[in-house]
Structures are given as C-alpha cells and as structure tokens.
Amino acid sequence: MNKPLILVVEDDAAVRNLITTTLETHEYRFCAVPTGEDAVMAAVSHNPDVMLLDLGLPDIDGIEIIKKIRTWSNMPIIVISARSEDTDKIDALDAGADDYLTKPFSVEELLARLRVTLRRLNYMQSSSAANKAVFENGELKIDYAAGCVYVSGKELHLTPIEYKLLCLLAQNVGKVLTHTFITRKIWGSEWENDVASLRVFMATLRKKIEKDPSVPQYIQTHIGVGYRMLKL
Question: Which residues form the OmpR/PhoB-type domain (predicted)?
C-alpha cells in the first residue's frame, strides 16, 4: 500500500524545508506549495491524504482555504500557525480543520499529530463509526441500534444529553470539536454559547465512562477550545 501523500502549504521557505525534510526522513510522500491558490490546485490535482496548512499565506487566508476545501473534501487538515490565540484555533477548527499546531513546534510533535490524524483517517475509512451499528473503543461500546452504552461489559445509565454528547464525540473520534460545534449540535444554535452547561454535562459523562475522571482516557479537554475523543 502506498504511503500517505501529505500536502504542505507554507510560504516560509525555512519552515517549509523543515517540514518536508522531516516527512522525507520518515518516508512520507509529500508535495509542497507556498500559496493558497497553489494549495487549492494541488488539493484538486493530487488528491492528498492530509494537508498541513499555514494560515498566514501571502494571497489567501488559511481559514478561507479550509472553508473552500470543505465544500468538496473531508481530507484531514492540520493547521500549523504562529497564531496562538484561542479564538484563532476556534475559528480554524470551526471552519473544518482537524487539528491545530502552534509555531514554533517540535518535529516530534508534528509527527505525533500526523500519526494521530492518519490513525483517525484509517479508522474512519475502514469502519465509519457513524455508519456502524456498534462503536467500540477500548472498553467503551456504544450500541447505536439499541441506544445502549457499555464500559467493560457493564451497561451504563446515561441521560439523553449525555448519550448525544458521547455519540457526537464517537462519530468524530480523534478530532477536536469546539464548544460552539458541540453545543450547536446538541442544543441548537440559540444555545451555542452555553459553554457552562456543556462543561456540567461533560463532567457527569466523564464520571460514568472514565475509570478516573481526573485522568481521562476517552475524552480529552482542549482548554478554551473544546473536546476530543481519543482512539484507544
């Protein structure tokens, strides 16, 4: 099977060379472009498996590129940007990015984020959690048809909101979901800023599915941004 093809979109030549050298050393296939227009063209012509995207490009803002790509492709997009504010991360993730890495970064962290994204991609391609009758992740099991949740074979009693939250995270396993995305999906757009309620329900859900809620295995918090279900 061919190695995944990574599209690198970065206008800074030094950073672009660092990324491509790292990918080459670890035997990933890649193509690299310096502008947003080139990025869209390469995404169409090369059909890459993952995009590594800088937001501060000379011609098109990276957020607009994400929105444009999302009109026709679910290709995973990892943002690599010097913009470090939570609002920047939230804007990128809400636009459709899958992950966000802040500059300066270590090559080890870049490779780790890439491995996580590729695992999620392989998982979703081979057995889409949204379309399967049963979702399994470690000791966690969701029987969608029956509306039941089990941990280590023991059935849990979840409230309707807790169940909807868990299913939403499971159907996006490995992907960071922003507070706004989650609250909009669970309660509707009029409640999309009710982060306090979301935190309460997430805390009760964790108490039920996690062995130690203070050291969660399944649901990871991204402070100021949102939550991610980890693939075990």
Answer: 132-231
Tokens of 121: 């991609």
Range of the domain at 31: 5-126
Cβ neighbours around 44 below 10 Å, total: 11
Residue 147 backbone zone (phi > 0: left; psi -120 to 50: alpha; other: beta): left
Model pLDDT for residues 155-168, shown as the tens digit of each residue = 999 988 899 999 99
pTM here is: 0.68
State the angle between helix axes of 13-25 and 107-126 in degrees (0 to 180), rounded to the nearest 10: 60
Task: Locate all alpha helices (DSSP H) within 74-194, ordered by sequence.
Answer: 86-95, 107-126, 160-170, 179-187
Structural domain total, the chain:
2
User: Does one domain contain both 122 and 37?
Assistant: yes
**Cα→Cα distances 67→96, 164, 179, Å:** 7, 26, 19
Whether residue 202 contacts residue 194, with contact meaning beta carbons closer than 8 Å, is answered with: no
Q: Which of 126, 142, 175 is the last residue of a domain?
A: 126
Residues 88, 15 share a domain:
yes
Which CATH number fits the domain that encloses residue 75? 3.40.50.2300
